[in-house]
Backbone:
């Protein structure tokens, strides 16, 4: 018999909720665990400013007292109001390969949502676009990244059995870093610099970077991602939160900023060395030795792969070659540090403009993930 319980939103219970996922994938060569403290903070109403306009409940499933599954049910009130929907999100979902377990978890989440007036369910999604999105449906034998979910191949089969349908797909590419900047990129980069008065800006002081581009960076995300699937603009409190978390973690040499002649932020490219293997070694913990593996991967260039975490360009400059300018700066650095490959991370399959930026690279589309939905 399956028993599903709503868990308390205390650090202790949230840690158990997060660690269920890590235990489920123990021994997997492809799964990359999150940092436990980061996920606990995301789920904690006292830590995550998204709870200013979100409501959530977390459920765990048990059989004979042993945890066999988990799910987060989220109501994003701001998104629902803006889009005229009564939509329940699900995320942080994991379960053993047992249809009784997955059904019990979704039944509990849906019952909670329906009791609050929700009429449809969609996911995996989080509290914001900065959280994990999409269930893996292709690429189960590819190593995951720190920014994406991994799941076993049986997950989407369970959702289809439960009546879920495709809402949207994201695709991911593994790119081969060219030995030098492609000539086309060089030409386009020079043209956009001259035509629009753009310049590449690099920072060596983290304090200065936070002061000058911390808030503008996330405001740029709000502008450039505004029309993307299920995107809701980050609030000022969310931006404060993400500035505090993310800018302090980036490698400044791999942070490429494009500004115009008025020193206004036009585009940004954020890359970091792949932390996938380091996170696997740390098992999501900073202590006692997790920090060593992460710092070594981050700063000592021991991996041959770099993650392209973020590329954002002001809407009025999109499709005008600004992306080429970003890569004229990043590609020489990738070669300098010995990166042979780059991971694109998820891009909506219908976003042809974004995928066009890889046309001058040797690449393969190696993963696909999906948001599932159904009426409830």
Residues:
């Amino acid at each position: 018999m399956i028993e599903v319980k709503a868990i308390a939103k205390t650090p202790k219970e949230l840690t158990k909720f997060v660690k269920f996922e890590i235990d489920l994938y123990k021994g997997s060569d492809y799964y990359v665990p999150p940092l436990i403290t980061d996920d606990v903070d995301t789920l904690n109403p006292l830590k995550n400013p998204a709870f200013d306009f979100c409501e959530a409940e977390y459920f765990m499933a048990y059989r004979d007292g042993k945890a066999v599954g988990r799910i987060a049910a989220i109501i994003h009130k701001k998104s629902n109001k803006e889009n005229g929907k009564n939509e329940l999100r699900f995320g942080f979902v994991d379960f053993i390969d047992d249809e009784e377990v997955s059904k019990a978890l979704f039944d509990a989440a849906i019952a909670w949502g329906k009791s609050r007036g929700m009429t449809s369910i969609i996911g995996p999604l989080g509290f914001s676009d900065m959280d994990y999105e999409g269930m893996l449906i292709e690429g189960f034998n590819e190593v995951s990244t720190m920014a994406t979910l991994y799941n076993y191949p049986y997950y989407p089969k369970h959702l289809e059995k439960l009546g879920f349908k495709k809402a949207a797909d994201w695709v991911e590419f593994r790119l081969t870093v060219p030995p030098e900047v492609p000539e086309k990129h060089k030409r386009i980069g020079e043209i956009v610099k001259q035509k629009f008065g753009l310049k590449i800006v690099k920072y060596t002081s983290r304090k200065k970077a936070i002061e000058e581009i911390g808030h503008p960076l996330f405001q740029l995300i709000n502008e450039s991602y505004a029309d993307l699937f299920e995107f809701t603009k980050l609030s000022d409190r969310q931006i404060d939160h993400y500035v505090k978390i993310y800018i302090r973690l980036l490698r400044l040499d791999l942070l490429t900023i494009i500004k115009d002649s008025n020193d206004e932020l036009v585009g940004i490219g954020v890359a970091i060395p792949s932390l996938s293997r380091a996170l696997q070694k740390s098992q999501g913990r900073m202590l006692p030795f997790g920090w060593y593996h992460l710092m070594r991967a981050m700063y000592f260039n021991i991996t041959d792969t770099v993650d392209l975490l973020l590329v954002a360009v002001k809407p009025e400059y999109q499709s005008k070659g600004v992306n080429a300018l970003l890569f004229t700066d990043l590609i020489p650095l990738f070669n300098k540090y010995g990166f042979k490959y780059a991971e694109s991370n998820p891009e909506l399959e219908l976003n042809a403009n974004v995928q066009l930026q890889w046309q001058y690279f040797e690449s393969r589309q190696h993963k696909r993930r999906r948001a599932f939905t159904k009426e409830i």
User: Anything to note?
Assistant: The CA atoms of residues 140 and 283 lie 19 Å apart. Residues 206-224 form the longest helix (19 residues).
